[in-house]
Amino acid sequence: MKTIWCGWLLVLSTIPLCAQQLTYYSDIKPILDRHCVECHSAGGAAPFELTSFEDVEKRADFIQVAVETRYMPPWFADTTFQTYHNQRGLSNAELKSIATWVGQGRRKGKATKTVEAKTASITWPKPDLVLPMQRPFLIPGDNTEQFRIFVIPSNSKEDLYIKGIDFRPGNAKLAHHARLMLDTTQMLRADDGAMAGDTATEFTRRNVQLAHAFWQGWVPGNFPVRYPEGIAKVLPKNTDIILNMHYSPTPQPAYDQSEIRLYLDKTPPKRPIHDLILDENWITNPPFVIPAGQVVKFYMRSPMAPADISLINVLPHMHLLGKASKPMPLRLRAKSFR
Ligand code: HEC
User: Fold this and answer.
1) Is 56 near ligand 1, meaning CB less than 6 Å away?
2) 46 in ligand 1 pocket by Cβ < 6 Å?
3) CATH number among 3.65.10.10, 3.40.50.150, 3.40.47.10, 2.60.120.310, domain 129-272
4) Distance between the two ends of the chain, CA-based, in angstroms?
5) pLDDT at 32
């Protein structure tokens, strides 16, 4: 008899008589605005919008699963050992709010003007300098992959301090990836539109040494880059940006005129960004060969950091052959790493 009583008490205490009723407008929309609509809005990288009650309500179960499994928002880095400045992910309290809202029947609540305006205003600020390809390029509709070089003169008489970069493909359907390089010799201007790797290019004929072989990269789904306060890249005066475009094969000819949008700082950065390209020459256990059917680990050792540095970005480039990469500082003489 006693046991039955306990059971009843337990049941009674879990009846959500006075549980708070969550609504889309007051509890869910702020979470989605913070973590999802940068991609899930018109023109974003995701296939559908999550900006209205209707968008969200009809996919509520799906959303709950996507966030609880941590499939969304996408974040591929392992956060076991460390956190990142631009880390994505929902807090446990946010996950709980979504689950509770779904469980309570997905109430809409009341929209206020300020709440609505918040989503609508998710636009990037106006760039300070827009550098488009000099002319539109006609991607031939012959089902071949196209690797092309475009020369984009910056025409700047001063060094520019770049605090943000936004690469905008002109043809998002066919742009497979873009790589930006820097040339300060201006000898490559005749190569505008040339096939990358063509031996007839000025680049090959005159053996031009690029000022930078990988200044910036872009692949579909990438976002504009913004550097923290006081940190910037320097674009030397009179630089030509060399845009290396890879277009996917297409049976229909189509135009592209991609552009580079730059955000500028007026004063030189306190902490300039330097890039270090480690290619296969830096491998300490050559040869750089993976025999068929084998798993091989390669080690690379970068030059010593010249000063106290912060690592701002790591870009492992392994196509589908590499499974993981682990950059780590080696403690030689330094006392500590933060
Ligand atoms: C960085 C961009 C980005 C962010 C941020 C993002 N998504 Fe997505 N989402 C995508 C893309 C791209 C897809 C389609 C490809 C896929 O399913 O992996 C997608 C797919 C989905 C899907 C469908 C999954 C499936 O199995 O087809 C759901 C549901 C979803 N997102 C919900 C969310 C929610 C909720 C958030 C915020 C908590 C969010 N996403 C944040 C880019 C994003």
Assistant:
1) no
2) yes
3) 2.60.120.310
4) 61
5) 96
Tell me if 28 CB under 6 Å of ligand 1: no
pLDDT tens sequence across 206-217: 999 999 999 999
Exposure string for 51-85, b = 16+ CB within 10 A, e = fewer: bebebbbeebeebbebbeeeebbeeeeeeeeeeee
> Which numbered atom of ligand 1 lies nearest the CA of 90?
38
DSSP line for 65-96: HHHHTT-SS---S--SS---TT-----HHHHH
Find out whether the beta carbon of 261 lies less than 6 Å from any atom of ligand 1.
Answer: no
Measured in angstroms, how far is the CA atom of residue 49 from the centroid of ligand 1? 10
Confidence of residue 259 (pLDDT cuts 50, 70, 90): very high
Angle at which helix 60-68 crosses helix 92-103, to 10 degrees, equals 150
**CATH 2.60.120.310 residue ranges for the chain:** 129-272
